C-alpha cells in the first residue's frame, strides 16, 4: 500500500498522496479538495464560532509534524518521568507512528525468542508497512503470513500463547475482527480463569489492529470497535495517540501477562511524527496521562480525537478566558479512574470525546463512573457530556460529518460553561 494520509486537525478529512515525492504545493492542493478553506466551510460552522470577535485561526498544518502534543525535540521526548533513567540518558530518532510500531516489534523480537508476529500480508510489510523487513531480519519461522481467516489467526495465536509463546497477531483492519470475536471473548479472555490452578494462561497474547476513519474508508474500513472489547473481563484494551506512545505501550503490551487488544488509529500512521527514544522502554498500562493541566473543564479522550480536542481547547481558552485540562486515557480498559476523578474534582465540568459511535461507548462508561462516585458527582457544575460519532454506519461521502470536529468540541465546551 503506497497511499499516504495527511490529517487536518480542524476537520476529519484526509487526502491521499500516491507518492512521497509529491510537491508541497500539490499536497496542499489535494488537502484543500478534501478540506475546503474556512470561507467555504463557514456556512456549516455553528453560529457561536462564526460570531466570535476574534478572527478564526489560519489553517493548521496538514500533517501533525509541528503539533504541540508531539515531541519535536530529543529533550522533549526524553523528559518524561515514565521512562527509565537509561532511556532518558539515551538518544532519539524521528519516527512516524507506523515506524514506531515497527521499532517496537523489532525490539520485542530481538529480546525474546518466544515473540512471534503474524497476520495477513505481515511478511510483506503489511498494508500499512508496520512490519517492513521484519521477516527478512528475524526469519519466516517468527514473522509470517497467514491465510485470510481472522478466526484462524486468533485460534492459532491463543494456542501459541497457551504453550508459552508471546504471539503478536495482526488483524488487518479492525472492521474484520468480528469472525475472531468468539475466540477472543470465549477463549483468550477466559483462559486463565477456566484453567484455574492448572496455571496455564494466554497472557502473552497481543492483538494489533488498525482502526478509525481516514476520510474515505466508508463502512468497512473506518470502524472503531474498542468499546466492544472493554465489555470483556480478562482483556486489556489500549490505543496510543503518537509514535512515542505507540512504541512504549506496545512493548508493555507484548511483555505483559494479560491478553492485550492494541488498537492503532490508522490516520496517524504517517500523519503523527515526533522524536522517539531509541532504547527499549515501556509506558504504563492502565495509566492515563494529563497532557495539559486546567482548572475549569476536563476533557477526556484517546487516539486521534486528542488533536481535535487540543485545537478546540486552544480556541476556547482564547475566546472564553477559561483553563481546560486534557487527559489521554491511553488504556481504555481497565482505565485509570484515579486520574480522571482527581481532575473532575478540580474542574467540576467534564466532557468525553471519541470517534466511535456515542451509544454504549467509552464516553458512556466514563460518564457513568464519574456520576456514580460521590466525590466527583457532588463537585459537578454540569452533567458530564459526550462528543462522539453518531449512531450510524460510517458514510463514505459524509464521513467527516460523523467524526467529531473542532466546532463540535468547541460547542460542547461552551455548553458546559453555560450550564
From TrEMBL:
SMART domains (alphabetical): Transket_pyr (SM00861)
Entry-linked SUPFAM superfamilies: Thiamin diphosphate-binding fold (THDP-binding), TK C-terminal domain-like
Family annotation (Gene3D superfamilies): 3.40.50.920, 3.40.50.970
Disordered: region residues: 35-59
CDD domains for the chain: TPP_PYR_E1-PDHc-beta_like
Residues passing through the membrane, by range: none
Catalysed reactions, semicolon-separated: N(6)-[(R)-lipoyl]-L-lysyl-[protein] + 3-methyl-2-oxobutanoate + H(+) = N(6)-[(R)-S(8)-2-methylpropanoyldihydrolipoyl]-L-lysyl-[protein] + CO2
Source organism superkingdom: Eukaryota
Domain Transketolase-like pyrimidine-binding: 95-271
EC number: 1.2.4.4
Keywords of the record: Oxidoreductase
Needed co-factor(s): thiamine diphosphate
Protein name as catalogued: 3-methyl-2-oxobutanoate dehydrogenase (2-methylpropanoyl-transferring)
Species of the source: Apiospora aurea
Amino acid at each position: 500500500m503506497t497511499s499516504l494520509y495527511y490529517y487536518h486537525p480542524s476537520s476529519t478529512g484526509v487526502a491521499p498522496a500516491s507518492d512521497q515525492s509529491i510537491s508541497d504545493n500539490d499536497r496542499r492542493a489535494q488537502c484543500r479538495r478534501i478540506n475546503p478553506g474556512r470561507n467555504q466551510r463557514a456556512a456549516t460552522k455553528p453560529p457561536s464560532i462564526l460570531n466570535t470577535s476574534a478572527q478564526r485561526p489560519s489553517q493548521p498544518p496538514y500533517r501533525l509534524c509541528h503539533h504541540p502534543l508531539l515531541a519535536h525535540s530529543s529533550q522533549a521526548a526524553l523528559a518524561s518521568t515514565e521512562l527509565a533513567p537509561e532511556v532518558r540518558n539515551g538518544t532519539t530518532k524521528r519516527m512516524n507512528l507506523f515506524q514506531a510500531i515497527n521499532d517496537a516489534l523489532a525490539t520485542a523480537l530481538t529480546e525474546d525468542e518466544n515473540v512471534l508476529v503474524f497476520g495477513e500480508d505481515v511478511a510483506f510489510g503489511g498494508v500499512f508497512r508496520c512490519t517492513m523487513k521484519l521477516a527478512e531480519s528475524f526469519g519466516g519461522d517468527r514473522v509470517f503470513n497467514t491465510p485470510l481467516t481472522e478466526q484462524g489467526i486468533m485460534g492459532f495465536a491463543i494456542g501459541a500463547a497457551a504453550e508459552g509463546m508471546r504471539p503478536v497477531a495482526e488483524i488487518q483492519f479492525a472492521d474484520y475482527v468480528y469472525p475472531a470475536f468468539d475466540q477472543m471473548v470465549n477463549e483468550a479472555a477466559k483462559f486463565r480463569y477456566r484453567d484455574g490452578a492448572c496455571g496455564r494462561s494466554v497472557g502473552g497474547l497481543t492483538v494489533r489492529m488498525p482502526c478509525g476513519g481516514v476520510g474515505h474508508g466508508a463502512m468497512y474500513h473506518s470502524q472503531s470497535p474498542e468499546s466492544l472489547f472493554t465489555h470483556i473481563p480478562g482483556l486489556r484494551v489500549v490505543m496510543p495517540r503518537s509514535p512515542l506512545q505507540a512504541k512504549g505501550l506496545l512493548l508493555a503490551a507484548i511483555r505483559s501477562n494479560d491478553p492485550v487488544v492494541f488498537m492503532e488509529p490508522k490516520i496517524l500512521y504517517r500523519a503523527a511524527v515526533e522524536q522517539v527514544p531509541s532504547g527499549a522502554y515501556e509506558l504504563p498500562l492502565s495509566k492515563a496521562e494529563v497532557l495539559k493541566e486546567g482548572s475549569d473543564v476536563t476533557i477526556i479522550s484517546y487516539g486521534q480525537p486528542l488533536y481535535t480536542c487540543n485545537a478546540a481547547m486552544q480556541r476556547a481558552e482564547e475566546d472564553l478566558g477559561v483553563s481546560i485540562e486534557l487527559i489521554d486515557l491511553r488504556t481504555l480498559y481497565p482505565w485509570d479512574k484515579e486520574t480522571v476523578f482527581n481532575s473532575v474534582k478540580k474542574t467540576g465540568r467534564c466532557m468525553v470525546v471519541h470517534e466511535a459511535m456515542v451509544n454504549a461507548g467509552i464516553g458512556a462508561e466514563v460518564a457513568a463512573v464519574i456520576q456514580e462516585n460521590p466525590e466527583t458527582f457532588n463537585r459537578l457544575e454540569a452533567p458530564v457530556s459526550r462528543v462522539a460519532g453518531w449512531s450510524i454506519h460510517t458514510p463514505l461521502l459524509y464521513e467527516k460529518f460523523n467524526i467529531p470536529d473542532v466546532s463540535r468540541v468547541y460547542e460542547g465546551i461552551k455548553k458546559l460553561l453555560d450550564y
